[in-house]
Amino acid sequence: MPGHIYTKIGMWHEAAIAMDSATRIELRYMNDRLALPFETWNYPHNRNYLCYIQEQLGWRTPRCKEPATCSARRATPKTLPRPDCQ
């Protein structure tokens, strides 16, 4: 939640740090529980929001590529693993 507050008041660097941390924690949570991105909304949301923050900072190459695809994909042998969603 701090990342959202920081963006509202224009503290973009702090927002990036907070959202990156939240994304890493959510990824660890999913790995511990063998959950996929579409099974929890936090991970794709955090990645998407992190991309938005990076755009506001003017980063040319966002850390996240196609964040919406992480939440939309299904668990099939053809789609696993997919490095851009990890």
| Overall outline | elongated
Helix content: 55-70%
Instruction: List segments where confidence is low: pLDDT < 50 over at least 5 consecutive residues.
Output: 66-86
Major β-sheet profile: none
Mean pLDDT: 76
Q: Give the tally of structural domains.
A: 1
How many angstroms separate the termini? 21 Å
Query: Structural class, from helix and strand content?
Result: mainly alpha
What does this structure look like?
The protein has one domain (2-85). It has four helices and no strands. The chain has helices at 2-8, 12-33, 42-57, 67-72. Helix 1 (2-8) runs antiparallel to helix 2 and helix 2 packs antiparallel against helix 3. The chain is elongated, with a radius of gyration of 13 Å. Mean pLDDT is 76; it is low at 66-86.
List keywords for this structure.
single chain; about 90 residues; mainly alpha
In a few lines, what is going on in this structure?
This protein has helices at residues 2-8, 12-33, 42-57, 67-72.
